[in-house]
UniProtKB/TrEMBL annotation:
This is ATP-dependent DNA ligase family profile domain-containing protein. It comes from the Bacteria. GO terms for molecular function: ATP binding; DNA ligase (ATP) activity. The keyword Ligase applies. Belongs to the ATP-dependent DNA ligase family. CDD domains: Adenylation_DNA_ligase_LigD_LigC (cd07906). The keyword DNA repair does not apply. One of its GO terms (biological process) is DNA recombination. Keywords: Ligase. Residues 101-182 form the ATP-dependent DNA ligase family profile domain. It holds the Pfam family DNA_ligase_A_M.
Length: 278
């Protein structure tokens, strides 16, 4: 890395099932928005997680250029506020709402690359070059008390918690155990009356919250080893060219998901356990 004007693949964390407490770790709120990277050199650039320009869909972010005195690269999360809380759907809709960037890491500052430095050092530099003002919010964090923060996040209806080892370097493009996230998830029992198939041939279970097979809150890949060939199914007419099969023996499935969208569909859903309906 020698050009601070070029996009850097963001470092990623692994998902763990439960919060934990450790004095060598820093815990932050995981905000529900778009990962973004701010570059201020001779001009302002704001990149998405994949390197896409975010200034075009969110032109109000141009105000960020007024907040920096030295060249800097900051890692953060772009969020939109709606009804006093972050709204992922407002970002998707490009709704004309207040946008903020919560910054939580500093990769470059005033001519020095910081990725090889430990997180604790990068945070010190971040606080030197930027403060909470305008559209910038500098992320708060606590040491050791990950469980307490997760409980607070759950009670407030937020997405989850990011745990970061204070000695960790910044590893561009890597998903590693130096960063861990534990999310607030909803669990629900559903029924599977009908199935479909992906374009790759994988069987898909269509989850219904009650006894109405037409009400589907999500479609998830069938567990490994399950095959429709071994079931007694009846073909129904599907939407478009993709058929839907009805199971003569429905399934009862416990799912876990982040939330239901405004259209009533699961977001970040997965299957926890299942059995045949008796």
């Amino acid at each position: 890395m020698n050009d601070p004007g070029k996009f850097i693949l963001p470092m990623l964390g692994i998902t763990v099932p439960h919060p934990f407490d450790d004095s060598e770790w820093r815990y932050e709120i995981k905000w529900d928005g778009y990962r973004c990277q701010i570059h201020w050199t001779d001009r302002l650039q704001v990149f998405s997680r994949s390197g896409r320009d975010l200034l075009q869909p969110f032109p109000d972010l141009a105000d960020l250029a007024q907040l920096f005195d030295v060249p800097v690269i900051l890692d953060g999360e772009l969020i939109a506020w709606e009804n006093g809380a972050p709204s992922y759907y407002a970002l998707q809709k490009r709704a004309p709402l207040p946008h903020r960037v919560v910054v939580f890491d500093c990769l470059y500052a005033d001519g020095e690359w910081l990725c090889a430095k430990p997180l604790a050092t990068r945070l010190e530099r971040m606080h030197r070059v930027v403060t909470t003002q305008g559209k910038i919010v500098v992320a708060d964090g606590i040491i050791q008390k990950g469980t307490a923060l997760w409980q607070s996040v759950r009670d407030r209806g937020l997405e989850g918690v990011m745990a970061k080892h204070l000695g960790s370097p910044y590893l561009p493009g890597k998903r590693v155990g130096y960063w861990k996230k534990f999310l607030v998830m909803t669990r629900q029992w559903t029924k599977v009356f009908t199935i479909s198939q992906s374009s790759e041939g994988q069987w898909l279970w269509r989850m219904s919250p009650g006894n109405d097979s037409r009400a589907v809150i999500g479609t998830l890949p069938a567990p490994p080893g399950w095959s429709a060939e071994a079931q007694d199914v009846m073909t129904e007419k599907g939407k478009g060219s993709r058929p839907i099969w009805r199971l003569n023996r429905p399934l009862v499935v416990e799912v876990e998901y982040r939330e239901l969208t405004t259209r009533g569909k699961m977001r970040h859903g997965r299957i926890r356990q299942w059995q045949y309906h008796t």
